[in-house]
From TrEMBL, chains A, B:
<dbReference type="Pfam" id="PF00043">
    <property type="entry name" value="GST_C"/>
</dbReference>
<dbReference type="InterPro" id="IPR036282">
    <property type="entry name" value="Glutathione-S-Trfase_C_sf"/>
</dbReference>
<feature type="domain" description="GST N-terminal">
    <location>
        <begin position="3"/>
        <end position="82"/>
    </location>
</feature>
<dbReference type="GO" id="GO:0005737">
    <property type="term" value="C:cytoplasm"/>
</dbReference>
<dbReference type="Pfam" id="PF02798">
    <property type="entry name" value="GST_N"/>
</dbReference>
<dbReference type="InterPro" id="IPR036249">
    <property type="entry name" value="Thioredoxin-like_sf"/>
</dbReference>
<keyword id="KW-0808">Transferase</keyword>
<dbReference type="GO" id="GO:0004364">
    <property type="term" value="F:glutathione transferase activity"/>
</dbReference>
<protein>
    <recommendedName>
        <fullName>glutathione transferase</fullName>
        <ecNumber>2.5.1.18</ecNumber>
    </recommendedName>
</protein>
<comment type="similarity">
    <text>Belongs to the GST superfamily.</text>
</comment>
<feature type="domain" description="GST C-terminal">
    <location>
        <begin position="87"/>
        <end position="214"/>
    </location>
</feature>
<dbReference type="InterPro" id="IPR045073">
    <property type="entry name" value="Omega/Tau-like"/>
</dbReference>
<dbReference type="InterPro" id="IPR045074">
    <property type="entry name" value="GST_C_Tau"/>
</dbReference>
<dbReference type="InterPro" id="IPR004046">
    <property type="entry name" value="GST_C"/>
</dbReference>
<dbReference type="InterPro" id="IPR004045">
    <property type="entry name" value="Glutathione_S-Trfase_N"/>
</dbReference>
<dbReference type="GO" id="GO:0006749">
    <property type="term" value="P:glutathione metabolic process"/>
</dbReference>
<dbReference type="InterPro" id="IPR010987">
    <property type="entry name" value="Glutathione-S-Trfase_C-like"/>
</dbReference>
Length: 227, 227
């Protein structure tokens, strides 16, 4: 019996894209189901009763949730084109940088994106820049975080390639310029143009509109910055 | 050549204990090094330059950090007495509940512990109780989260067994009572008295003093609750 694989996601979700990319790299056929998060489907509520969030991978009617956990599941279930290195120490390092991306890089960039104003951009972006420096260091001597090919860390950090150009357009700044982050800059180019990634890239203009609207609504709801 | 295994931790760290328990369950010999976090050692800064936190597992001079990642490393390196089930779906479920413990249960209990005052205890503890209900559900028909023996989820949630009695003593309340959470109540008893766990349990009275002092200093530093 062929595997029945479904993926509940949204068109723009950075977490959903991780799963899309991993399935494509593994060559796993799947049915993509776009959720409307303002009106969650009974399937989503059934399959992820705790968080009620996408992405959800449904494999032979059983759900797996949390994007980094789904990546581990995909790696263990479909062995071809490995996403993780073989040695436990390198596997631990890959998991570390994936988690660092979620725990440290993502909130620092999000905070800068929402709160950063032109007059204080340097200050607002400082923590994000500090975090990105650690990632820059990891790319020394490598094309991808995974080495010569895209691996779990590239997939986990793929949202950077996705979001940085959007953020830069909205803020009209250069956060990840070639001088400051030559390796990350090159990585974004290489990663984005890899066919398996490029094939399912959400349209840039649509992302800009979406994130511009999110930023404006959050700023409107927030208390004034200077009392 | 025998493995050289060192563990940088503190006497009370709930995250450090995870690694201690996993190494004991696997029967791995290790050297324990207690860190003074007010005066971090050169080793700690060398081995965990990003977070500068314990625990750090040093195996043949190479560090592994982040307690849940260390557990995966231990599982992959020493195969005896597995901490994770065999099937990828069950492995994903175990990783989910371990992460749920860190992302949801821990902050909700910490918040209640710090902010909860007698007159509003019901309200302060409500999110923690909601989260604990999910865990109670997971224990149905099982002695441990891992089934008949202690597994990754038990180790990851072990801090509950450790901290709940401390918190209850400081607050003079019963959070995890036998009526509300019969299965979690029984699990705390079973887990705590398992020899491999009980052997390295920090002294209850010392934990009470420590957490009482943390709570008092945080409350003293916080703005008044009612303006």
């Amino acid at each position: 019996m062929a595997d029945e694989v479904k993926l509940l996601k949204t068109w723009s979700s950075l977490f959903g894209l991780r799963v899309v990319w991993a399935l494509k790299i593994k060559g796993v056929q799947y049915e993509s189901i776009d959720e409307d998060l303002t009106n969650k489907s009974p399937s989503l509520l059934l399959y992820n009763p705790v968080h009620k969030k996408i992405p959800v991978l449904v494999h032979d009617s059983k759900p797996v949730v949390e994007s980094l956990i789904i990546l581990e599941y995909i790696e263990e279930t479909w062995k071809q084109n490995p996403l993780l290195p073989e040695h436990p120490k390198e596997r631990a390092a890959a998991r570390f940088w994936a988690k660092f991306g979620d725990d440290r890089v993502m909130p620092s960039i999000w905070e800068a994106f929402i709160k950063g104003r032109e007059e204080e951009e340097h200050c607002a972006f400082a923590p994000a820049i500090e975090n990105l420096k650690f990632l820059e260091e990891q790319l020394k001597g490598k094309q991808f975080f995974g080495g010569e090919r895209i691996g779990l860390v590239d997939i986990a950090l793929g949202w950077l390639a996705n979001l940085i150009p959007v953020l830069e357009e909205i803020h009209a700044i250069k956060l990840m310029d070639r001088e400051r982050f030559p390796l990350l800059f090159a990585w974004i180019q290489e990663f984005s143009k890899t066919p398996v990634i490029a094939d399912c890239w959400p349209p840039h203009e649509k992302l800009v509109s979406k994130y511009r609207a999110i930023r404006e609504s959050l700023l409107a709801a927030a208390p004034p910055h200077h009392a």
